[in-house]
């Protein structure tokens, strides 16, 4: 009677471990960038209320609000979220400051401009914000 061994050899197991390691080395940084982009999108969502308030103020008064209070918004530090520290209004500029979940001190700037049909908003990266984290409509 022959004894037949069943199972994997050491070499086969080492190859499987190496393949899993390579896949993890690629997947983990991609996932981290994905989560940071999601956090940046949260800031855009929070800035949506500020955009509406600034647009309404400009339509009613013909000038940009000086700060959050003039735009009838809560204080900058009280507009925050999971990854957002503050949303600040200063004239036609809305600045979203992120926590360390994106990058320490990273900023997203929304710049308003008056046009004949209303207000257009330009989205750009501020201090310490990597452009790879910006949503597609901001690039």
List keywords for this structure.
4-stranded antiparallel sheet; 37% helix; 22% strand; alpha+beta; 139 residues
- Structural class computed from helices and strand pairing: alpha+beta
Oligomer: single chain
How many helices in DSSP terms? 1
How does the major sheet shape up?
4 strands, antiparallel
Name the helix and strand elements from N-terminus to C-terminus, one letter apiece: HEEEE
Radius of gyration: 24 Å
- Percent of sequence in beta strands: 15-25%
Mean pLDDT: 90
**Which sequence of strands runs across the widest sheet?**
1-2-3-4
Unreliable residue stretches: none
**CA-CA gap between termini:** 71 Å
Number of strands: 4
What is the percent of helical residues?
25-40%
Tell the overall outline. rod-shaped
Structure, described:
This protein is α+β, with helices and mostly antiparallel strands and 139 residues long. 37% of the residues lie in helices and 22% in strands. The chain contains one helix and four strands, in the order αββββ. It is rod-shaped. The protein starts with 9 loop residues before the first helix and ends in a 14-residue tail after the last strand. The relative contact order is 0.14.
Indicate the topology.
Blueprint: H1 10-61, E1 84-90, E2 93-98, E3 107-115, E4 118-125
Antiparallel strand pairs: 1-2, 2-3, 3-4
């Amino acid at each position: 009677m022959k004894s037949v061994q069943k199972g994997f050899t050491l070499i086969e197991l080492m190859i499987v471990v190496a393949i899993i390691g390579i896949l993890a080395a690629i997947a983990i940084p991609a996932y981290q960038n994905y989560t940071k982009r999601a956090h940046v999108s949260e800031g855009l969502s929070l800035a949506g209320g500020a955009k509406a308030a600034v647009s309404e103020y400009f339509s009613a008064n013909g000038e940009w609000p000086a700060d959050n209070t003039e735009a009838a918004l809560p204080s900058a530090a009280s507009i925050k979220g999971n990854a957002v520290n503050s949303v600040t209004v200063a004239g036609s500029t809305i600045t979203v400051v992120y926590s360390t979940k994106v990058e320490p001190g990273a900023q997203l700037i929304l710049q308003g401009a008056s046009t004949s049909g209303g207000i257009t908003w330009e989205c750009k990266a501020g201090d310490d914000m990597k452009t790879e984290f910006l949503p597609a409509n901001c690039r």
